[in-house]
Amino acid sequence: MGGVNSPVRAFKSVGGDPPIIERGLGAHLWDVDGREYIDFIGSWGALILGHAHPAIVAAIQDQAALGASYGITTELEVELAERVKRAIPSVEKLRFVSSGTEATMSAIRLARAFTKRDLILKFEGGYHGHADSFLSEAGSGLATLGIASSPGVPEALAALTLNAPYNDLASVEKLFASNKREIAAVIVEPVPANMGVVLPAPGFLNGLREITNRTGSLLIFDEVITGFRLCYGGAQTLQGVTPDLTTLGKIIGGGLPVAAYGGRAEIMAQVAPLGSVYQAGTLSGNPLAMRAGIEVLKLLETANFYSKLNARAERFVAQLHRAVREFSIPAQVNSTGSLATLFFVPQTVGNYADAKKSDTRRYAAFFRAMFERGILLAPSQFEALFLSAAHTETDLERTLGAVRESFGLLAADPE
Ligand code: KE4
Questions:
Q1: For labeling, which of 7, 74, 155, 325 is most exposed (least CB within 10 Å)?
Q2: 129 alpha carbon to ligand 1 midpoint, in Å?
Q3: What DSSP state is assigned to residue 51?
Q4: Using CA positions, which residue lies closest to atom 13 of ligand 1?
Q5: 364: which residues sit within 8 A by CB, 6+ positions away?
Q6: Which domains are present in the chain?
Q7: What is the pTM of this model?
Q8: Nearest C-alpha to atom 8 of ligand 1 is from which residue?
């Protein structure tokens, strides 16, 4: 289907044909023609440890020999759940699912049941997977392909999703005022990465917490990307804001299909079989994926993992800023921890409307110049660059060399 199993992989917004990947190791990928790339997609953020980490491979091999899935509870699910709960105390109870979409879809169903309200408020440029309720004004692949709302979503359902500009509390207040006591939940990426990386303005997340408390709505942090990315836990740990529900994915599966939703015990108690909010899944919590997740969290919990990764990422981003200045490229670098986006726009980017002012043709030219130099960035202006613990100083130096050459080409062709 279009040669891909997910639209953003199609390279449609950057041109050219995507490579066919044969294998990965550490921060590197090789395609079927033997070309090697330094990889900054990292399975869209899942591979914070890089490809084929030996401990993860060994755990998966070991578990595979014991069986991949039983469809009955194992101790592994309990162990991974306990690790997540210890890392993110607001997650008092959780349920494993197999994709971030399932996690966010289930979280809003639960919020609607718990509050007995129907409306959901999300943010323009926020991306929470491809469930019907999330496809208006969404980020990631929809932003990349310019799809403002997906056909096939009934008008009546789409009308239950409200959108506000990110970092704009006044707009959120206005939507709450005009939809009194009808909003079940606000769902937000605490640090958005699907409109490109955008940082929460001081007080924004606290403001959402105050508004949802005051109005009896739930606050859902979609941490599918930020969970275990910025620190051992969620962005909520760094931001000091406690949501009612959290969704996780990507990193907690170590490259295998794992996601989760969880939060306050009294809310989660409404999920079947304890309650009657129905959510299920054949492969939810399967032992193979649980083993991978447990191994990942063990490695992430090692001392200084994040301080080392984030310090290396910060040094890299500082060099990126320097190159932007040196070559006078009209661009912004938004970053936090090991997440970064280079927006080809002269002004700062604080929300989706700002991000959409980016010159996507220049991003495409930059992407192709880097690709030709063996550096694989996200094939979209509205995604993030993911640094991993596997990116060595040599990888980063090579990447910065390619950045300078690519900027040189762009500067020579101001278009
Ligand atoms: P999945 O259903 O793709 O596992 O997760 C959906 C999702 C939910 N929430 C956030 C914050 C997400 O970033 C995602 C998925 N991220 C995109 C990349 N930005 C997945 C890439 C793709 O769709 O191929």
A1: 155
A2: 5
A3: B
A4: 225
A5: 13, 14, 15
A6: 7-53+304-412 (3.90.1150.10), 54-300 (3.40.640.10)
A7: 0.98
A8: 128
What's the per-residue H, E or C state across 132-154?
HHHCECCCHHHHHHCCCECCCCC
User: How far does residue 100's CA lie from ligand 1's centre (Å)?
Assistant: 6
Q: What is the pLDDT of residue 148?
A: 80
pLDDT tens by residue, 298-310: 999 999 999 999 9
Determine the residue type at 224. Answer: V
Q: How many angstroms is it from 142 CA to the middle of ligand 1? A: 11
Q: Are 278 and 59 in contact (CB under 8 A)?
A: no
The atom number, within ligand 1, closest to the CA of 129 reads 6
Which atom of ligand 1 has the smallest separation from the CA of 9?
A: 24
Say which amino acid occupies 105: M
Confidence at residue 415, expressed as pLDDT on a 0 to 100 scale: 64
| CA atoms 15, 18, 19, 21: torsion sign | positive
Which residues are catalytic, by number?
127, 222, 250
